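debug: dumping io for the single-chain case to check the tokenizer round-trip. Nothing else runs in this session.
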Amino acid sequence: QVQLVESGGGLVQAGDSLRLSCAASGRTFTGYAMGWFRQAPGKGREFVAAISWSGSSTRYADSVKGRFTVSRDNAKNTVYLQMNNLKSEDTAVYYCAAATGGPKVILALYDYWGQGTQVTVSS
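debug: decoded output
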């Protein structure tokens, strides 16, 4: 089992920045690609960004390209999501997830999930 704990969410104004963190523990973190997803009220969970184990490969949803950056520090078993120029439509609960293999955009391909952290952007 891999346990994932997100942190860093909060209430910000449009145009502000936030950095989310996802700390992994338990079974070895080695080899897992990591993804970030989000779920807004009344909507399904959607892909935001993903990163390979090595960090050399990343993928982003079109809605966040150029504003969000995913990174990881394997020595700290932590993945980050830097969010800049936040918009009201970014308001959601943000989840990190772990999957074997490369970075994936499909929710069902992830094996482990965190409990989520709330991000609220006021306009």
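debug: round-trip ok. Residues 62 and 76 are 29 Å apart (CA to CA).
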